[in-house]
Sequence to fold (606 residues):
Amino acid sequence: MAEYVGIDLGTTLSGLAYLKPDGNPEIVPNSDGERLTPSVVFFEGHEDVKLVGSAARDGGEPDRTVFQIKRHMDDPDYLVEIDRKKWSPAEISALILSKLKRDCSKIIGDINEVVITVPANFNELARKSTIAAAEMAGMKVKRLVNEPTAAAVYYAHNQGVQGRILVYDLGGGTLDVTILNVEGDNIRILTSEGARHLGGSNFDEMLLDAYAEQYRQQTGAPLFSDERHRRRVLQTTEDAKKMLSKLQRVNDTVANDKNDGIARIDLTRVGFEKIIRQMLTRTVMLVEQALDSAKLKASEIDHVVLVGGSTRIPKVKVILEKMFGQAPKSCGNVDECVALGAALFAKKSARIQEVCNASYGTVAMVYNARTGEEKLMNSVVIPKNTPIPCSRTQVYQTSEDNERVIEVDITQGEDEDAKFVDIIGRITLEVPPNRPKGCEIAVTFSYDENQRVRALVVDKQSGRSREVAVSYKGAGVLSDEDLKRKSAHLRTMRIE
Amino acid sequence: MFKKILQSLSKSQSAKTKATKPQPAPLAKPAAASQSQAAKAASVSTTPKKPEELCEITPKMAKDQIQAQLKLLYRRYNRSASSLDPKTRAEADRMLDAIVQVREKYFGEI
Fold:
């Protein structure tokens, strides 16, 4: 049985690594002989088989093929309908994980417990969906770890570096930036910031628009009219993007499927960089945000490390070198280091101090005695990036006389404007009657090393209290019963 | 200096509704601040706003004020882009585009 296993469930590629007896991690290939498995599922209708990986990506019918499901893990309403059956993002992801588990088990033995990586900014639903996907695939999740943290663990292990490291992880679907400090064998995360829908697939879509525009200008016709052809051209644009990381110019010809003629596409690296410039500016702003969160200047970073396939774009390196005054270093194979780091994390987690992924608090009317201003605010109790485990308390007052039920909204998010945070739960506490307003209520949040959050509300006068586990239970989350049923159903499927 | 009075969003909204009848009661979200913003937006104009207007950048602002405002907005809307509420996510995408455009205008392209 493989004891320490890490899985990178990526937007475009997924990989599984395990820790060898010598303490070094290694990628385990799938049964198609590939080190990484495309995160694509094709629902084959004739033989009722679910194809996962390259076969699904290259050969499947587009309207029965699911790409980049990870981008929807945080959407409670997203469902894929095939043959009148609806599949949630967690179920699709479970098919990908099932293939990884089954294929890799043949090489390293049974896989029961795993560490799975997630983007730093994955919300509560997306994290729960990832755990549910693993459970449906027959694996227990020992820990979820942020992708850049895993990559940094691998980099520190592989290069033996010390000091402050900034990891810039630009993958297929997300950008994550993590700053950490390495001292001897100990790793302390200082901050982890992420941006949703900012990655290589966004660049592919932008190139696709450019192709479509050039085609329309040359032929007067649309480049694609159905999903099948759009997919085909999208693959072409992805290939062109990769070529432009090596060459200054790429020439291509494209045609639509209506015999409207062939267009010659002339693309330069400079032109491509112009197309994606605004997205790259967003990545710079996230790096700045991470530096602000860690209260550091760019000059105080010792190493800048690149992770993720999209860091192969030369402009990314140029931008970071300009920001930090040093050339960023590659984390070995930028596509594999997250999975490799996850396997290392499975063993070394006790030596890695992480931080809260999000701020937790409640909604309160805050009076400023000096200015006389009053404002309904998100009152943060535990700020994001607080080292874990931790516990923090804030004392509030009741607003009305004879208040019988205290309602405490649990918020997730750091913004002081309540509009910009998620309300992920509510605690209600019955208190004795006939009390004036202004009674003190203590709200405590605790965050343990397994990233479980608890909230405790105490009425200080009566001593009455209520404690709950803080966890999102809204739309998109499977009940335990549903999870068992779907796990059993998944085991009956043919997954290749 | 600060006094914090515990409120739930629904409670604060019902208080608001009582005070400002005959407005219809809002849904669970957004909070009071967003109601006033929405009302303001509806009464002013339907013309699309310029990126500067969206980011509340005025011609009199100094560069460091603009930078601070853009940082605040980027942090806010980048986080909102991962919200559980799809409307909030869509608004966040529009705002992130505007923030980048303003940044490029005032601080140059990367």
